[in-house]
Amino acid sequence: MIIAMSARATEAEIAAVTGVISQAGLNAIVLPGGDRVAIGVASAIPHDLREPLAEQISGLPEVDHVAHVSRPYKLASREFHSADTVIEHKGVTIGAGEVVIFAGPCAVETPEQMAAAAKAVKAGGAKVMRGGAFKPRTSPYSFQGMGEEGVRLLVDAARSEGLLTICEVLDEYDVGVCGEIDFLQVGARNMQNYRLLTAVGRSGKPVLLKRGPSATIDEWLLSAEYILCQDNPNVILCERGMHPIDRTYTRYTLDVSAVPVARRLSHLPVFVDPSHAAGDWKYVSALALAGVAAGADGLIVEVHPDPAHARCDGPQALKPDVFLRLAEDVRRVAGAVGRPR
Ligand code: PEP
Ligand code: MN
Question: I want to staple 163 with a disulfide (CB 3.0 to 4.6 A). Which of 4, 158, 225, 250 is the partner?
Fold first, then answer.
């Protein structure tokens, strides 16, 4: 932490700042400048002291501003954990170079839909099948998902094709009924639902954490920190599009740059969700390939056997044949950027 004093600061005002730092058990160094003094905290600041100390010092007379040197998250940061996190779960490895595909419909609807979707995503080489049983919908009148029955249908369809499962959870109840689900998803709307983050952390299951459409990268990583704090090291970050300037053609704006940035700041694997970013199946493949080229460790893609009759997000769902082509293109792009195919 660096504290910049205003040019008017007196010896006593500088001493007040160093006094607060010493009282906290930390060492202060006064760095004389040309026209003003800066004070550095020369010892590691315990994480729970970082914000209160900054707030206390900011309120002292003639403190111009306080700047943090280290990042606000610890467990999620490469500063404290330089090697990439590799998630090994039930035979699926994420973060070791290979681009891993999660795919399936937005929502679980019928056994027939799930069986056809499972076959389609398996044929494209997906390792994990998605299917929403608890849907966070903008309108309370929209289909809210099949709940527990949806979880059952997802597990049955995926198992019959030898796939693992991922399901979005909205609250602690959902976490409880997802006992047989392999990966939990925290959706964009819930990225800052701290009780839910704690609950999925405690579940011990790997968690795919979507970035909120208005969240900064630091906020996203702080949300990951909530899960990691529960002794759950298996978090996948997922970029799924930011609030757009123009919604005429796409639903959100995929922040491709978030992929290399998150991979630099954090050791956690980073996925891209091209489906919710595009909102239109015609653009999903291009965004998916951009994500892979930018270094994504995996993709989560919506695939439906009959998008025209989907109960949720049909316009952005890929038909099985389009998904197959995308999966082949993903392998080609992965190879072109030096990743195992
Ligand atoms: C979803 O994956 O179906 C979903 C609701 O995604 P997001 O949270 O990114 O909107
Ligand atoms: Mn969806």
Answer: 158
Q: What phi-psi label fits residue 24: left (phi over 0), alpha (psi between -120 and 50 degrees) or beta?
A: alpha
What amino acid occupies position 91?
G
Q: Which residues of 197-222 are buried (b: 16+ CB within 10 A; e: fewer)?
A: bbbbbebebbbbbbbbbebebebbbb
* Residue at 163: amino acid letter: L
For ligand 1, atom 6: residue with the closest CA: 187
Ligand 1 atom nearest 240 alpha carbon: 9
Residue to mutate, 167, 254, 276, ligand 1, most ligand atoms under 8 Å from C-beta: 276
Q: Which domains does the chain have, with CATH numbers?
A: 2-67 (3.30.70), 87-336 (3.20.20.70)
Q: For residue range 225-277, list pLDDT tens digits in order.
A: 999 999 999 999 999 999 999 999 999 999 999 999 999 999 999 999 999 99
Question: How wide is the angle at C-alpha 126 spanned by C-alphas 123 and 132, nearest 5°?
Answer: 110
pLDDT band at 127 (very low <50, low <70, confident <90, very high): very high
Mean pLDDT for the stretch of residues 266-289: 98
312 closest CA partner among 161, 175, 187: 187
The mean pLDDT value for 50-77 works out to 95
Name residue, tokens 């990439």: 84
Pocket of ligand 1 (CB under 6 A): 106, 132, 136, 168, 187-189, 210, 240, 273, 276
